[in-house]
Design a protein that fits this description.
- The chain is α/β, with parallel strands linked by helices and about 180 residues long.
- Helix content is about 35%, strand content about 20%.
- The chain has seven helices and seven strands, in the order E-H-H-E-E-E-H-E-H-H-E-E-H-H.
- Bound molecules: iron/sulfur cluster (SF4).
- The site of iron/sulfur cluster has 13 residues, from helix 1 and helix 4.
Length: about 180
């Protein structure tokens, strides 16, 4: 067998549903393990620093705060093939609903002051609570993306059909309703 690829996943502003769907691959994850080493993932390993020279990375979630932004830029630099994984990554989807309220300070004021029943206060602790970006963006507005897997979440069969060829160094065909339907 040829050398295993280095596979990663990251979780930005999303509900983790896309990662749960990834785990729904169930026993096929043993097949993944034959072809890939999981080098960074909230559900697949415990490394805290995103490594260099990653072959493939699935990105769940939109870009909503400074921590998301910084991680995504680092991941792009260190990854050959980056995948927008799920509707929040592809379109900004649910996290972008806050864009309708306006910029970050308007969102924070509405959420934590106007609607705060008990000791209303803004969440602020430098180095601990990441600052919100002025608006939530889909991943491809921040970095170049190599492939999109839509779905909220993408089903396990769709995830398998998308990444199985990549594990073998081939390009998947993202065509037809089963592969590209949103929602
Ligand atoms: S696409 Fe859907 S399942 Fe995935 S993170 Fe967004 S809301 Fe959750």
């Amino acid at each position: 067998m040829s050398e295993k690829i280095k596979l990663a996943t990251i979780w930005l502003a999303g509900c983790s549903g896309c990662h749960m769907s990834f785990l729904d691959l169930d026993e096929w994850l043993f097949e993944v393990a034959k072809f890939a080493d999981i080098v960074y993932s909230p559900v697949g390993c415990d490394l805290k620093e995103y490594p260099e020279n990653v072959d493939v990375c699935l990105v769940e979630g939109a870009v909503a705060n400074e921590e998301n932004w910084e991680l995504l830029l680092k991941v792009r630099k260190r990854t050959k093939f980056l995948i927008s994984f799920g509707d929040c990554a592809v379109t900004a989807n649910v996290p972008a609903m806050r864009n309708m309220l306006g910029k970050a300070d308007q969102v924070l004021k509405r959420s934590y002051l106007e609607l705060g029943d008990v000791t209303p206060q803004l969440p602020h602790f430098p180095g601990i609570v990441p600052e919100l970006l002025e608006r939530v963006s889909p991943v491809h507005e921040v970095v170049q993306i190599d492939m999109f897997i839509p779905g909220c979440p993408p089903s396990a069969p769709r995830i398998q059909a998308a990444i199985e060829p990549l594990l073998k160094g081939e390009t998947p065909k993202m065509e037809g309703r089963d592969m590209i339907k949103f929602g």
